[in-house]
């Protein structure tokens, strides 16, 4: 049969996969073109419908730079909010720093852990995506205590009378502990894990709590307005043992804090040196 006047249909080349990338103001668009139909759609003739191509955007360079420019601070062992706010010159002090980072820190400003990232000078942004929410939630869960396993007895350690200050008002002739100037009702924390050996009235010490720490030392908290634990109870580092007050022989509300080698009066050691030896900055 004659083939004159008839035309053979050209064979269409098959494309397995190709990718077109176009610059769009700093962001690249990756356009996967699948099969011959998609390849033809990319060069469709006038009057034909263009295929809808899936588009995947890549984060722009500008967005990365904005993230990199955010002022943040990573918590180190021994840090507390007051110290960070002072060193980083945060306007509004530790209260502003805590308010801006409450979602990450949690309900207790005294419990921050190494590795926690804090926003300085502005409120921390809320998580934007499901992935980032999960990551930030894991980061925001506060540890029971710093990595050393020890912490400060109060959130903001303002020291009044120091250890071993001489004076006739003390029966030993010197101050056997350290005083933290805090208002009545301030939460007092176990500086380390241990067992409560006494909780109740302590004469000149007023309401007191004594905890035998796991390393064999004893921590005493005196002049409390309220007790939160009882004798025989185990506690973890950072757990509340009571509220500060002005009970007993005092001139005003504060926490009298001692570290002892036994649970009894007169066996005191330097509480500041003890805390520092366990990685707690004071």
Notes on the structure:
With 282 residues, the chain is α+β, with helices and mostly antiparallel strands. The protein has three domains: 44 residues, no CATH class; 71 residues, Membrane-bound Lytic Murein Transglycosylase D, Chain A (Roll); 100 residues, Glucose Permease (Domain IIA) (Distorted Sandwich), CATH 2.70.70.10. It contains seven helices and 14 strands. The strands form three sheets. Strands 6, 7, 8, 9, 10, 11, 12, 13 and 14 form a nine-stranded antiparallel β-sheet that branches. A three-stranded antiparallel β-sheet has the order 1-2-3. It starts with 17 loop residues before the first strand and ends in a 5-residue tail after the last helix. About 26% of the residues have low confidence.
How are the SSEs placed, and which strands pair?
Blueprint (H helix, E strand, L loop, with lengths): L17 E7 L2 E7 L1 H7 L14 E2 L3 H8 L3 E3 L6 H7 L5 H8 L1 H4 L11 E3 L10 H11 L37 E3 L6 E3 L4 E8 L5 E7 L4 E10 L6 E2 L4 E5 L10 E6 L7 E2 L1 H7 L5
Helix pairs in contact: 3-4
